[in-house]
Design brief:
The strands form three sheets. Strands 6, 7, 8, 9, 10, 11, 12 and 13 form an eight-stranded mixed beta sheet that branches. A five-stranded antiparallel beta sheet has the order 2-1-5-4-3, sandwiched between helices. By secondary structure, the protein is an alpha/beta fold. The longest helix has 81 residues. The chain is flat. Helix 15 runs antiparallel to helix 21 and helix 21 runs antiparallel to helix 24. The chain is built from 24 helices and 18 strands.
Length: 817
């Protein structure tokens, strides 16, 4: 991480001055601090020495007075302190009499201490005296006041104490005066150091400033003949010499450049003449090559036209099998020779810079499908699956050179089929980038062929090269196809490359830039599925422009987690001729919606992972974020709608509400309302989850509901009823067990979800009584009141085995038909 530049400028002169002055200031502060600290200690030491000496004298003279408890003698002893003016107060303390004698005037501190001492009992005073003596000879300092205590001994025993209070104001004044004098002297010294520093920094800064001015003058004037005048014989002088040497070298270089510029015109004229001669020779050679290729093209194509034309006529005549085989070999060889000729001419044209791209509107899907159809038979003969995948965001109509795009795509698909013995060849088209009216497409051709090593990939796009020279004999080819493709792709503003591994196949890809085309110029085919086998793809797109109401173009997303409901609803849509995709929860629905263009979403409300409400809200948020002009219609599907469910669906952003069970006519009305769909088939009332009429009491299964499901079967989709019954009977026991566990644990939400799920599947198969019991259990879960849930579950345990038995019998009967 680099250093941040300073936002202000500090001169060298100031830096030097600051360095010298700072050093002097630091020394002055350290010396002054040391002096003051030393003087203060000396002052205290002297004052304490004077007071201690006086105390020792008084203590020695007071022994007799204290021993005989003689106040007068004690006062006489203390009167000698009159010769020591600094002693403001003195007192002799004895254990028997308290304050035996005093001298001077008490202050507040003395008065409080002596009163406290006198108030003690005689036995306690000696202990207090020892407490006073704990101060020792250090004393107690308070500003200019010093109080000390000293013992009075008799036969090495403490019989009393002397308290001395000294006033050191005079000594304080003397200490302050001396301190001020010293600080004044230090200030004078500091001022002198500033003057000296100012003079000394000029010795260093002046030559540097002079050198800086010289450098500025050279920079402004560009005159490298100027020199800096050396004034010192030190490192700064060496800097002067180095700078002058640099100026000398720069001046020499300028002279050489000036001399070179003077001769450059002559040199340029000579080189230009040589280049013109070389260019004329190259153009002559290129013209000769072009003329040769043109002549060769004419000379070769003329007989080739006769060979291919007559051979094709010959094949239509009555030939023997052997003759037909010979003639077919001639025709195939002629086509191969013509392909080689075309490659050589294209390569020559590209090398000469004569290749010019044309621009026209074309239908991308029709073009790709047309290329795929060319290789349908070769792929089929080898047992290869040939598939196409065009992303939904890729426009149908583009503007560009359709011939060259077809040439590149055909070349790569041909190679993929040629070098793949078994497996798959997949063509994938996606949109990489859109800028204004231009877009960049990426084409990838994936195969499961022999693969290419890394070493061989390096020379794969070189002229007349193949990945392995041995493959030339085995597979044929000039090795020009890929290099021509690379040149054409670059002309179309793209790149080409590959990813491959030996034995695992290859992925060749290329990008091209196109303009958006005019959709009125060419017809628009039907939408392409995610993976479309070529055998099912029309050779040419002849469909009219898409209308939302046409059955072939209408695309619906069914979001449903119940397998039974999935089969039934998809069966109804299949009868209508509608194309529908399936998503088993809200998360999968979001992924499908983002990748595809749907006209309508049929959304179940209660699903795992993400329910229908959350999925719809997410879709609406994304539509607002994208600024979509219109919203995709979302129709809610929910079984036995409870009170308030419709409002909840509409509040989540859904457009309509289709309660389960619904009839075929109801779903048809929804399609007609939201996408303008009209079915040409008869409108048969088919119930998705239960029959119109409630069965008589005691009837386990509504047979009409089973007949409605059976009516969904078709030659291409048989056995729907048996499949639905099988799924239902497989899942029901686990669902009942989950309900039992949730009730025992008091998990109301799980009870609600599983009861709703079981109710939907049961109603779909006509088990109306069982569905009603599940609905009751669902309501308990929703109300979070499971008090009677166990009893309701007992009813389910009683009726389900009977329902299962009837359904098994029905499934067995259907399988024998």
């Amino acid at each position: 991480m680099g250093k941040k530049p300073l936002h202000f400028r500090i001169s060298v002169r100031f830096k030097l001055l600051l360095m010298l002055v700072g050093t002097g200031a630091m020394i002055s502060v350290l010396f002054g601090s040391y002096f003051v600290f030393s003087e203060l200690n000396e002052y205290k030491k002297n004052a304490l020495s004077i007071v201690n000496t006086t105390a020792k004298i008084i203590s020695a003279n007071s022994t007799a007075a204290v021993a005989f408890q003689d106040p007068d003698a004690a006062r006489d002893t203390l009167s000698a302190l009159i010769s020591t003016p600094m002693i403001r107060h003195a007192s002799i303390l004895s254990p028997e009499r308290g304050v035996l004698a005093e001298y001077g005037k008490r202050d507040a501190e003395d008065d409080a201490l002596l009163k406290q001492f006198s108030a003690l009992a005689p036995g306690e005073r000696l202990a207090e005296i020892f407490s006073f003596l704990s101060f020792g000879q250090t004393g107690k300092w308070q500003g200019s006041r010093l109080q000390t205590f000293h013992p009075i001994h008799l036969d090495n025993e403490v019989v009393g104490a002397i308290s001395l209070t000294a006033d050191l104001s005079d000594m304080h004044r003397e200490f302050r005066r001396e301190t001020i004098d010293v600080l004044g002297i230090l200030s004078i010294i500091f001022g002198i150091s500033i003057l000296i520093a100012s003079f000394l920094q000029r010795i260093i800064s002046s030559p540097l400033l002079q050198l800086s001015r010289t450098m500025h003058n050279v920079s402004e004037s560009g005159n490298y003949s100027l020199r800096a005048r050396k004034t010192t014989n030190d490192e700064i002088g060496d800097l002067y010499e180095s700078f002058n040497q640099m100026l000398g070298q720069t001046e020499k270089r300028d002279r050489e450049l000036k001399h070179h510029r003077e001769n450059l015109e002559v040199l340029v004229q000579r080189r230009t003449s040589e280049l013109i001669d070389a260019k004329e020779k190259a153009e002559t050679a290129n013209h000769a090559k072009s003329a040769f290729l043109a002549n060769m093209s004419h000379e070769i194509r003329t007989p080739m036209n006769g060979i291919l034309g007559m051979t094709e006529i010959l094949l239509d005549t009555g030939l023997t099998p052997e003759q037909s085989r010979f003639a077919q070999s001639v025709y195939t060889s002629g086509e191969s020779l013509l392909t080689i000729l075309n490659d050589i001419l294209d390569f020559s044209k590209i090398e000469a810079g004569k290749m010019v791209l044309e621009a026209s509107d074309f239908n991308l899907q029709a073009l790709v499908e047309e290329v795929m159809q060319i290789f349908k038979t070769p792929a089929s003969n080898k047992g290869l699956e040939l598939a196409l995948n065009i992303d939904d965001d890729v426009p149908f109509f583009l503007n560009g050179d359709v011939v060259r795009l077809r040439q590149v795509l055909s070349n790569l698909v041909a190679n993929a089929v040629k070098f793949t013995e078994r497996g798959l060849v997949l063509v994938h088209v996606l949109c990489e980038q859109v800028i204004d009216d231009h877009l960049q497409l990426r084409f990838s051709i994936r195969d499961t062929g022999i693969g290419i090593s890394l070493k061989e990939q390096e020379r794969l796009f070189l002229p007349f090269s193949q990945a392995d020279e041995s493959t030339t004999r085995r597979f044929g080819g000039t090795g020009l196809g890929l290099v021509i493709s690379r040149k054409l792709v670059e002309l179309m503003g793209g790149h080409i490359g590959l990813e491959s591994e030996i034995g695992k196949g290859s992925i060749f890809w290329f990008t091209c830039t196109f303009k958006k085309g005019d959709e009125t110029a060419v017809p628009k085919p039907a939408p392409v599925s995610k993976k479309l086998p070529v055998e099912d793809t029309p050779k040419k797109a002849e469909a009219a422009p898409r209308e939302v109401a046409s059955k072939s173009d209408l695309r619906i997303l069914l979001v449903e987690d119940n397998p039974v409901n999935q089969e039934v609803t998809l069966g109804i849509l299949n009868i209508f001729g509608c194309k529908a995709d399936l998503a088993e929860n809200g998360l999968l629905a979001l992924e499908a919606w983002e990748k595809n263009n749907y006209d309508l979403i049929l959304m179940d409300c209660q699903m795992p992972e993400m329910d229908g409400y959350q999925a719809t809200e997410a879709i609406r948020r994304e539509e607002r974020k994208r600024g979509a002009a219109t919203q995709i219609p979302v129709v809610a599907l929910t079984a036995h709608a409870l009170k308030g469910d419709r409002e909840k669906c509409l509040a989540a952003g859904m457009d309509d509400f289709l309660p389960k069970p619904f009839k075929q006519q109801q779903l048809l009305d929804i399609l007609e309302k939201w996408v303008g769909f009209k079915s040409k088939e008869n409108k048969v009332d088919v119930t998705a989850e239960k029959a119109t009429e409630t069965p008589d009491e005691g009837t386990l299964i509504d047979q009409k509901a089973l007949e409605n499901i059976r009516s969904l079967e078709s030659p291409g989709n048989p056995g729907i009823l048996g499949k639905v019954i099988e799924i239902y009977l497989q899942e029901a026991p686990q669902t009942i067990q989950t309900l039992r566990q949730a009730i025992s644990e008091g998990n109301a939400e799980t009870v609600r979800q599983k009861a709703h799920y079981f109710k939907s599947g049961s109603a779909n198969l006509g088990a109306i009584k069982l569905a009603e019991i599940c609905k009751e259990l669902e309501c308990m879960g929703k109300a979070e009141n499971l008090r009677n849930a166990a009893k309701v579950l007992e009813q389910i345990d009683e009726i389900f085995p009977k329902v299962a038995k009837v359904l098994e019998k029905q499934s067995s009967t259907d399988s024998k038909r």
